[in-house]
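Suppose a colleague, Dr. K., hands you the sequence of a protein chain of 264 amino acids and asks what its three-dimensional shape might be. Before reaching for any lab equipment, you can write down a predicted structure in token form. Begin with the sequence itself:
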Amino acid sequence: MPQTLRTFLGAAVRRVRRQAQWFAVRSELTSTSSPLALDYVAAQHKSPLFRPLAGVDPELQRNKVVNLQLAAKQLDGVVLRPGQRLSFWRHVGSPTYARGYLDGLVLSHGRIGAGVGGGLCQMTNLLYWMTLHTPLEVVERWRHSYDVFPDSSRTQPFGSGATCAWPALDLQIVNPTAATFRLAVEVGDEYLTGTWTSDIEPPARYAIEERSHRITHEGPGVYVRHNELWRLESEGGFTTERLIAANHALMMYEPFLQPAPAAE
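The predicted structure, expressed as tokens, is then:
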């Protein structure tokens, strides 16, 4: 079978599978939004829009900002009521040139390149990290298979992001609580900023702790990085903990054999 036909059929299959999944959970999917923030801040986070990346065309980062602005318009104000589900791709839609998306930075099989809609992973990274600090539950998340950048300036544990690719790799969040949550996202001059607010003050506080960090040597020039992320939930003087992710990623740079810095 020719490569182009194989690629076309693969994309069609992925679209059908995602549409089938959305249909299966259609009664849960949220479709409402509000311009008004709720009373209590459940979680906030921000990430810089521009990073110094050697050998990367700065235009790709500027285009990424445009892509994030388009996605933010679809996500800002989304309301997640009890029992409802948020699907990143269902709200954002297909990132195409016809919809205004530009070629931004993409990572594919550990290689840096350009592709339409590139840079939207910064949005899913932000949403995932923020949601881990709320009682909301992440029910679909895809981890990065490659560790591309060293730890300099890293402010979160390795493996605390969520990659995305239309439509197969989605980020989905469910509200298992009795509270209503509202998402706010904003693309400023320097930062992508996100906030979850709620109509009920969250009864617990959440922290993410990295454990079992290690780097293994798998062959000549081949290193794999591993860790676990645990969520600590503190309420009423008691703390419970739960494993939320076990990460394994092929390192694309020569490692310094030391643990990653802790989260902020």
